C-alpha cells in the first residue's frame, strides 16, 4: 500500500509552478542582486542604489494603476500617452506656478481615464481597443499642445525631481507611499473588494448588485492619475518636457511588472508587493545588461524571456 | 449466464486538499450493465472521486483498474478516449461555441479535405438532440440555451461517444420531470447495452427508480456499499448523515411546515404586466409579507425571466414593480437590492459565486457597503456576519479564507444564500434554491425559508422539484410561454392540479377564469 502511494504521487510540478508564480519575482530580484554584487564593479554603493531606485520609481507608479486595471480583467495601454500629456500640460501651465499646473494635469488625466472607463464600462468596448484609441490620441494631443522638447526652469519642479528628505529622494518616497496606499485600497476598502469581484466574475458581481460601471470607470481614472503623477515626476527629473519620447513603451514595462509580480491577466487577483518587485526586477535586469555593455536590444530580449517565464508560471495555477 | 464482467476496480483512493481530506481510502467496483448510485452529503467527496477517476485531479494514493488494466489518466479527454465519459456537476461545455460543435467536441466529423464538415455536424446534431426532446437551432451558441437544455446536450455528448462507463454527477438538478424521464430511458438503454453507469443525485426517489447498487460516502470515507434494494430510504439517509435511524425518522424528510400566515394583507411586492420581448408577456405576481409564492411551469415558461425582471437583472419593455408600495426603477439590480429585493440566481456557477474569492468575501460581497464607513471595510463586522452564517447554514469549508470555487456544489449554494440573508431583505426571489443540495441541507434550507416567511419575509420560490414547490408554497402562480395561465390557492395547491394547469387542461383553465369573473 505504502509503495502504491509513493508510486502514484506525481512529482508536483504544479506546486512548483505556483511557488514560482508567487515568490519567483522575489527570488529573481535576490538573484540579480547577488550576481551584480559579485560581478559588477561599484554596484554595492549608496549612489548606485539611489540611481536605480529613482529610475524605477515612475515605472512602479504606473504599474500600480495597471495592476488595478488588470485586476478587473482589463488593460490600460494609454498610460504612456498620459505621461506625455502630463509633460506637455506641465510645461504649458508652469507659468502659473507648480500647484496650478499640477491641478490642470490632474484634470487632463481624469478626462482620459473617464474616456477609457466610459468606453469600457458604458459602451462595452474591449479594454485593449478602448485604451489603444487613447494611447494614440493622447500622445497626439500632447504633441499638439507642445510640439517639441522644452527645457523647464522652475526651482520647485527641480526640487521635486532631485530633492530628498534625510537622503531619500522624493521620487522614491512618493512611489513608496503610493504603493502602500494602493495596497491598502485593494485590501481594506469596498472599492478594492468590488474591483476583484468584478474581475473574477462580472455577471456574478452584477447580480450581487455591485456598482460595476462606477467601479470600472474609477479604476481607469485611478490608472490615468497615477500615470500622470509618473509623467510629472519624470519631467521634474529631466527638468524638461519631452512629449515625443516620454513614456514610450511604458505600457509594456508596466504590464510586465504586473504580470511578473504574480497578478494574473485573467483578473480577480492583484498583487501589489509583487508588482513593485516586478518593476524592480526589470530595472535590475536592464541595469545589469547596460553595465556590462550589452546593446539595448539585449535588454528587450531579456525582458521578453522574463515575461514568458511569468506567463508560463501563471499557466500552472488552478490545475492540480 | 456468466456474471457481468468487472469494468472498473478502484482500491484505496485518497486525495487531500489543503486543509481537507476530501477522499480517504475509498474502494469502488463497477460491473458491465450496473447502474451504481454514489451518494453522500454535500462535501462528502462524490465529485472528487469522479474527478480522480477521470484525470481532473491526481490521486495521492490508490489504484484504478479499468477493464483489467491499471490506468492513470492525465486529462479528462484521455479518460473519455479510453471509454469513461462524464457529465460533470458543473456543465462543462463551451458557451460561445454552437450547440452542434459542443456536441461533437473532440470528435468532429471531417470532410475529405480534413476540414470540419459543418453541414453533416449540424444535421446529425439536430437528429441526436431530437432524440432527447431538445428542439433548437443547433447553430446557435450553446449559452443561448437554458441550463436544462444545456444539460441534455452534455448528456447526449457523453452517451454518443463510445463509452464503457458513463458517469453522471447530479445530471437532473436542472431538468424537468419530462426530461428526467428521457434521462432514465437513456440510462436503461445504456444498462441494456452493458455499459456501467455511475449516478450521483441528492434526489432519493430517482436513485430508487434507476439504480441497482449504491456506495455511500461520508466525510471522504466509504461507509456503505451494496444493493440499493436492501436499504430503505430512511436507513439510506441515516447512513449518509451518520445519525440514528430513529432521529431521522422523527424529523421526517421534508422540512416545510406548510402554511404560513400572511401577516399583512398589503403586498410587499407587486409586479404588474412585466413584459420582455419574446420572453414575458404581461406577467403579474404579488407577494404579501410572510407568504411563499411558488412559480410553476415548465422549462422555458418564463419563471427565471420573471424573477430576473423583478430583480432588475432583465430589462423590461413595460410593466412595473413596487416594493412596499414604492415603485422600483426598472432594469437596475442595485436599486432592487437597496429596496430589499434579492435574487438567488439559477445558474450558480456563472452568475452566483465569485469563484476566485474566499467564502468570507463571497458572503460579504453584497452587504459590504453597509459594513463599511467612508469606503473602509470593518473587518470585525465582516467576520461576525460571516461566522454567524457559516454556523447557521452549516457551510462546510476548511476556513472562511477558502476559495468558493473549491467548495462542493451544495456548499457553494449555501454561501450564496448567506450572501442574501446577510442583506436582511424584504423579498427573496429563490430560483432553484435547493438544487444540488443534500437531503440534510435541503431540509435546513427549507426550514430556513419557513422561518424567514414566519418573520414576515416575502418569498418567491421557483423549483423544478414539484414536491418542494407544492409543500413550500402557500400559493402557486403557473406560467406557460411567458404568461400566467393559472393560480392555485389553498387546497388547490396539489401536484395533480399543478400538472393539469401546466398541461393547460381546459376545464381547469375555465375554473380559473370563472373564479376570476366571479370575484
Ligand atoms: N479544488 C479543491 N481545492 C480544495 N478543496 C476542495 C477542492 N475540491 C473539493 N474540495 C473539498 O473536498 C471536499 C469534497 O468535495 P466534493 O466536491 O467532492 O463534494 P461532493 O460530495 O461532490 O458534494 P456536493 O454534493 O455538494 O456536490 C469538500 O470539503 C470540498 O471543499
Ligand atoms: Mg459534487
UniProtKB/TrEMBL annotation, chain A:
CDD domains: TM_PBP1_transp_AraH_like. The keyword Cell inner membrane does not apply. Keywords: Cell membrane, Membrane, Transmembrane, Transmembrane helix. The keyword Transmembrane applies. The chain crosses the membrane at residues 23-43, 49-70, 129-147, 167-186, 215-234, 296-314. It is a multi-pass membrane protein. Pfam families: BPD_transp_2. Coiled coil: none annotated. It is found in: Cell membrane. Its main location: membrane. This is Sugar ABC transporter permease.
From TrEMBL, chain B:
The keyword Translocase applies. The keyword Protein biosynthesis does not apply. Residues 8-244, 248-506 form the ABC transporter domain. SMART domains: AAA. Pfam families: ABC_tran. It is a peripheral membrane protein. This is Sugar ABC transporter ATP-binding protein. It comes from Streptomyces sp. R17.
Amino acid at each position: 500500500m505504502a509503495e502504491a502511494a509513493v508510486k502514484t504521487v506525481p512529482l508536483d510540478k504544479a506546486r512548483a509552478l505556483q511557488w514560482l508564480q508567487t515568490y519567483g519575482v522575489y527570488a529573481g530580484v535576490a538573484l540579480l542582486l547577488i550576481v551584480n554584487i559579485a560581478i559588477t564593479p561599484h554596484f554595492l554603493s549608496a549612489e548606485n542604489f539611489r540611481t536605480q531606485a529613482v529610475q524605477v520609481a515612475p515605472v512602479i507608479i504606473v504599474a500600480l494603476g495597471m495592476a488595478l486595471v488588470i485586476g478587473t480583467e482589463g488593460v490600460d495601454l494609454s498610460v504612456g500617452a498620459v505621461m506625455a500629456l502630463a509633460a506637455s500640460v506641465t510645461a504649458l501651465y508652469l507659468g502659473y506656478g507648480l500647484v496650478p499646473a499640477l491641478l490642470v494635469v490632474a484634470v487632463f488625466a481624469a478626462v482620459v481615464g473617464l474616456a477609457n472607463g466610459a468606453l469600457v464600462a458604458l459602451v462595452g468596448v474591449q479594454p485593449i481597443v478602448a485604451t489603444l484609441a487613447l494611447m494614440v490620441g493622447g500622445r497626439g494631443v500632447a504633441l499638439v499642445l507642445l510640439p517639441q522638447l522644452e527645457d523647464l526652469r522652475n526651482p520647485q519642479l527641480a526640487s521635486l525631481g532631485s530633492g530628498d528628505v534625510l537622503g531619500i529622494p522624493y521620487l522614491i518616497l512618493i512611489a513608496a507611499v503610493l504603493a502602500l496606499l494602493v495596497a491598502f485600497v485593494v485590501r481594506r476598502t469596498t472599492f478594492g473588494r468590488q474591483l476583484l469581484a468584478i474581475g473574477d466574475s462580472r455577471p456574478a458581481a452584477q447580480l450581487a448588485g455591485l456598482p460595476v460601471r462606477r467601479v470600472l470607470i474609477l479604476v481607469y481614472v485611478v490608472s490615468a492619475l497615477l500615470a500622470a503623477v509618473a509623467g510629472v515626476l519624470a519631467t521634474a527629473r529631466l527638468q524638461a518636457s519631452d512629449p515625443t519620447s516620454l513614456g514610450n513603451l511604458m505600457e509594456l514595462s508596466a504590464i510586465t511588472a504586473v504580470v511578473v509580480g504574480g497578478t494574473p491577466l485573467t483578473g480577480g487577483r492583484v498583487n501589489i508587493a509583487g508588482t513593485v518587485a516586478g518593476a524592480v526586477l526589470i530595472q535590475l535586469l536592464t541595469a545589469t545588461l547596460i553595465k556590462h555593455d550589452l546593446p539595448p536590444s539585449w535588454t528587450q530580449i531579456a525582458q521578453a524571456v522574463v515575461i514568458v517565464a511569468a506567463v508560463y508560471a501563471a499557466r500552472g495555477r488552478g490545475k492540480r | 449466464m456468466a456474471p457481468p464482467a468487472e469494468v472498473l476496480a478502484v482500491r484505496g483512493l485518497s486525495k487531500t486538499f489543503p486543509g481537507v481530506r476530501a477522499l480517504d481510502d475509498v474502494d469502488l467496483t463497477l460491473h458491465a450493465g450496473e447502474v451504481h448510485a454514489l451518494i453522500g452529503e454535500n462535501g462528502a467527496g462524490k465529485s472528487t472521486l469522479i474527478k480522480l477517476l477521470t484525470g481532473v485531479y491526481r490521486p495521492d494514493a490508490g489504484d484504478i483498474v479499468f477493464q483489467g488494466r491499471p490506468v492513470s489518466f492525465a486529462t479528462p479527454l484521455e479518460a473519455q478516449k479510453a471509454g469513461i465519459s462524464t457529465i460533470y456537476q458543473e456543465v462543462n461545455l463551451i458557451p460561445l461555441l454552437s450547440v452542434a460543435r459542443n456536441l461533437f467536441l473532440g470528435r468532429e466529423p471531417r470532410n475529405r479535405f480534413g476540414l470540419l464538415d459543418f453541414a453533416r455536424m449540424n444535421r446529425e446534431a439536430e437528429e441526436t438532440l431530437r432524440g432527447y426532446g431538445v428542439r433548437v437551432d443547433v447553430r446557435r451558441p450553446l449559452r443561448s440555451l437554458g441550463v436544462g437544455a444545456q444539460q441534455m446536450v452534455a448528456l447526449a455528448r457523453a452517451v454518443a461517444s463510445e463509452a464503457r462507463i458513463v458517469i453522471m454527477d447530479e445530471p437532473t438538478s436542472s431538468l424537468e420531470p419530462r426530461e428526467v424521464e428521457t434521462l432514465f430511458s437513456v440510462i436503461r438503454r445504456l444498462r441494456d447495452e452493458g455499459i456501467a453507469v455511475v449516478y450521483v443525485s441528492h434526489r432519493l426517489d430517482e436513485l430508487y427508480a434507476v439504480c441497482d447498487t449504491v456506495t455511500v460516502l461520508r466525510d471522504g470515507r466509504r461507509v456503505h456499499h451494496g444493493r440499493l434494494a436492501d436499504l430503505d430510504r430512511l436507513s439510506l439517509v441515516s447512513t449518509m448523515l451518520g445519525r440514528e435511524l430513529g432521529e431521522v425518522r422523527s424529523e421526517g424528510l421534508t422540512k416545510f411546515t406548510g402554511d404560513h400566515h400572511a401577516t399583512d394583507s398589503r403586498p410587499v411586492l407587486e409586479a404588474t404586466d412585466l413584459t420582455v420581448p419574446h420572453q414575458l408577456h404581461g406577467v403579474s405576481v404579488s407577494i404579501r409579507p410572510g407568504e411563499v409564492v411558488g412559480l410553476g411551469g415548465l422549462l422555458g415558461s418564463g419563471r427565471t425571466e420573471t424573477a430576473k425582471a423583478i430583480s432588475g437583472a432583465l430589462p423590461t419593455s413595460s410593466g412595473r414593480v413596487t416594493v412596499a408600495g414604492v415603485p422600483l426603477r426598472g432594469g437596475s439590480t442595485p436599486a432592487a437590492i437597496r429596496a430589499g429585493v434579492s435574487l438567488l440566481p439559477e445558474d450558480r456557477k456563472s452568475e452566483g459565486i465569485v469563484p476566485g474569492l474566499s467564502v468570507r468575501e463571497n458572503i460579504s460581497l453584497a452587504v459590504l457597503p453597509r459594513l463599511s464607513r467612508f469606503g473602509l471595510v470593518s473587518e470585525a463586522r465582516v467576520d461576525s456576519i460571516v461566522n454567524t452564517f457559516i454556523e447557521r447554514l452549516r457551510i462546510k469549508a476548511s476556513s472562511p479564507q477558502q476559495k468558493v470555487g473549491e467548495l462542493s456544489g451544495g456548499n457553494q449554494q449555501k454561501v450564496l444564500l448567506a450572501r442574501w440573508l446577510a442583506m436582511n431583505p424584504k423579498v427573496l426571489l429563490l430560483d432553484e434554491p435547493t438544487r444540488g443540495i443534500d437531503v440534510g441541507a435541503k431540509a435546513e434550507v427549507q426550514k430556513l425559508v419557513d422561518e424567514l416567511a414566519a418573520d414576515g419575509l416575502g418569498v418567491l420560490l421557483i423549483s423544478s422539484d414539484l414536491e418542494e414547490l407544492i409543500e413550500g408554497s402557500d400559493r402557486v402562480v403557473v406560467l406557460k410561454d411567458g404568461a400566467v395561465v393559472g393560480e392555485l390557492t389553498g387546497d388547490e395547491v396539489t401536484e395533480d392540479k399543478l400538472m393539469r394547469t401546466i398541461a393547460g387542461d381546459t376545464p381547469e383553465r375555465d375554473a380559473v377564469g370563472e373564479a376570476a369573473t366571479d370575484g
